[in-house]
Fold these 3 entries.
Entry 1:
Amino acid sequence: MAKTLYVGNLPWSTTDTSLADAFRPHGTVISSRIITDKETGRSRGFGFVEVEDDDAENMVTAMNGNDFGGRQIVVNEAKPRQG
């Protein structure tokens, strides 16, 4: 099984790869993606990391509040989409 983590307050320059690399020391990263604005293509400052179920809690504990590119990131388990 996999869980999806929400990662907020990311620097604008964050890429899918750099986001995955930041989480990789704390467990298995399946995928990562930065959410971008549809019109400008610019990062919206948040993204999602899909991780192994067993690693999710450790990753939230290890990464929430950490400095990433000069910003204090917010990490928690993503809520399912509604609607």
Note: Residues 53-63 form the longest helix (11 residues).
Entry 2:
Amino acid sequence: MNSRKLILIVDDDIDFISQIKHYCEKFGYETMTANSENEALELIKTRKPDLAMLDLMMEKDDSGFILSYKIKQKYPDVPVIIATAVTSETGLIFGVESHEEQQWIKADLIMEKGVRPDQLQREIKRLLKE
């Protein structure tokens, strides 16, 4: 049995998936990837990830929020990171620092895309309590 923790990476940008998958595997994690909300939902039917990293805008502008909500419904203990470029593209600022924001956005962390490997590793370890 594989004892490495499993990270689900979901994004419609194959280059972003490749980059994050490379980093996560370099950090010692197993990964599974999906290019859409629906593909990710199929994956989690049979396998529970230890952590999920999702793009915000995929098929729809709010696909990441919806997927995060559905993951939290099925696996409330799985930490979810939403990675987005929305703030840099639109100026819209949002986060999950307050309890109210966490209740609205069912995610544990919002990261601006352009994620540095050291920052990603630190946040994954923090969320997995390693």
Note: The mean pLDDT is 89.
Entry 3:
Amino acid sequence: MSRIQVITIIINCVFIGYIARLITKGKLREEYAIVWCLCTFILVLFSFWTKGLNLMSKIFGVFDPPNLVFTAFIFLILIYLLHLSVVSSKSQHSITRLTQEMALLKEKMKKGDDAEQNN
């Protein structure tokens, strides 16, 4: 086993521990942690199974196997960022709607109080 494999495995184990800590503290939801755990598992898998990475690079026609890893993960990160943008947009829409409803309720309460004071 080469040095870079050992370093990669150690870094991935630390990263998994960090993800687990974020989940237990409630700072990261489980649905988002699954993606990070899956990506880390793939990196650990190819750290142990370097022939598999060579085989995958030949299948996809990539000359250098590390380039396949970088290209695949850049593509996955872009897809994940798009997903997070959709989630953020939905949340922003919900917040706007709730704020508008709250403003309307405040206005109704204020009119009700004014009508009560006049009587």
Note: Helices lie at 3-24, 30-48, 50-60, 65-118.
